[in-house]
Amino acid sequence: MTKGSIYLLLIITFLACSKNDTPETETYEPTPLPLSIPQLFSDKIIPPVIPNNNPQTVEGVALGKKLFFDTKLSGDQTMACASCHSPQHAFTANTPTSVGIDGVSGNRNSMPLFNLAWNYGERFTWDGKELSLERQAMEPVQNPIEMHSDWQDVVDRLQSDAEYPELFRLAFKTSTITKELTTKAIAQFERTLISANSKFDKFSLGETSLTPQEQNGLNVFMDEERGDCFHCHGNPNNPLWTDNIFHNNGLDTTFSDLGLGGVTGDPNDNGKFKTPSLRNLAYTAPYMHDGRFSSLDEVIAFYSAGLQPSPTIDPLMKNLDNGGVQISDADKADLKTFLLSLSDPTFLTNPNFQE
Question: 10 Å Cβ neighbour count for 352?
Answer without folding.
Answer: 11
